[in-house]
Amino acid sequence: MLGAVANSQIGCKIANQFINIILAYADDLELIAPSWRALQNLLSVLYSNANEINLSCNLNKTVCMMFKPKNRNRIIADVFPKLSVGDCCINFVTTFKYLGHILNDNLRDDDDTQREVKNMYVRTNILLRKFGKCSFNVKLQLFRTYCLCFYDIALWHSYKINSLNKFRSCYNRCIKIFLGYKRRDSLTSVLLDSGLPSFNTVLHNSSASFVKCVSSCSNQIVSLLNAL
Questions:
Q1: pLDDT tier at 10 (50, 70, 90 boundaries)?
Q2: What does the pLDDT average to over 98-117?
Q3: Are residues 117 and 181 in the same domain?
Q4: Are residue 149 and residue 191 in the same domain, yes or no?
Q5: Using an 8 Å Cβ cutoff, are 45 and 20 in contact?
Q6: φ/ψ (deg, to 5) at 98
Q7: Alpha carbon 14 to chain centroid distance?
Q8: Which among 168, 144, 156 is positioned nearest to 207, based on CA atoms?
Q9: Torsion angle of alpha carbons 116, 120, 121, 126, nearest 10°?
Q10: Where among 44, 59, 93 does a domain terminate?
C-alpha cells in the first residue's frame, strides 16, 4: 500500500508526507488506507461526521477492495474481518466498477478493455439501426461524437496484448460497418477517406492528453505522485 499510519492520525504517507486519503468526486467517495485498522478508523470517522450533517452512505454500493503489495514477502495476511459502517458490514470484492472504470484487485486492465469493446459494439449497432441510411458525412459526425469517447483508456497500464488487439479489431471493424465499407477494404484507405484517427493514434492522443493534464495539475496528491 501507500505507507503506514502516522501515530494517531488516519491516512497514508506519500513521498514521506502524511495525507488523509479521501478522494471525492460529486457524491462518490473513495477511502484509501495502508491497513485494515486504518481503513476501519477512516470509516468510523466518515460515519460519525455524516451523521452530524444528516447524511448516510448507500451501503448497497459500498464495497472494499484489497490490493496486495508488489513484494509478496510483505504480505501479512490474505483474509481480513469485514469492515463496518455503523452496524452494517462491508463485503470485500475482487472487481468493482468505479466512475465507469472497472477496477481489479490485481491492478490489471483487461476487464476494462473488454468493457470498452462491448460498449463500442453496442454504440455502433445503435447508430447503424437508427441512422444507417444517413449520408456519409452525417454518419461520420455521429461516429466521431458517440464512438470515440474513450475517456478512460489513458488509465490503462497493465493488460494482455491480446486484450488490446481485440479492442483494435473492434475499432477497425466498427468503422467499416457503420460507414458502409466492406470487410476486405484497405484500412488505410478507409482512414484516409474518412479522416478518422487510427487506433494507435487514439491511444497516443489519450495518453498524451492525460499526461499533460496530470503534469499541470496543482492538486497536492497529484503533485506528490508526479514527484515519485
A1: low
A2: 92
A3: yes
A4: yes
A5: no
A6: -120, 120
A7: 21
A8: 156
A9: 140
A10: 93
77 and 146 together in one domain: no
User: 102, 62 in Cβ contact below 8 A?
Assistant: no
The DSSP bridge partners found for residue 102 are 97
Does 80 share its domain with 131?
A: no
The amino acid present at 49, given as its one-letter code, is N
pLDDT value at residue 76: 72
Q: Which amino acid is at 72?
A: R
Q: Work out how many domains the chain is built from and give that number.
A: 2
Helices (H), the chain: 36-52, 110-131, 136-147, 161-179, 187-194, 199-215, 220-227
pLDDT at 54 over 60: yes
Domain housing 60: 12-93
Residue with the three cell numbers 487506433 = 199
What are the beta bridge partners of residue 18?
Answer: 13
Same domain, 16 and 72: yes
Q: Please determine, for residue 80, whether its predicted confidence score (pLDDT) is greater than 90.
A: no
Whether residues 128 and 69 share a domain: the answer is no
Asked if residue 92 lies in contact with residue 64, where contact means CB atoms within 8 angstroms, the answer is yes
With contact defined as beta carbons under 8 Å apart, do 123 and 142 qualify? Answer: no
Position 57 pLDDT exceeds 90: no
Taking only the tens place, the pLDDT of each residue in 142-197 is 999 999 988 889 989 899 999 999 999 999 999 999 999 999 999 999 999 999 99
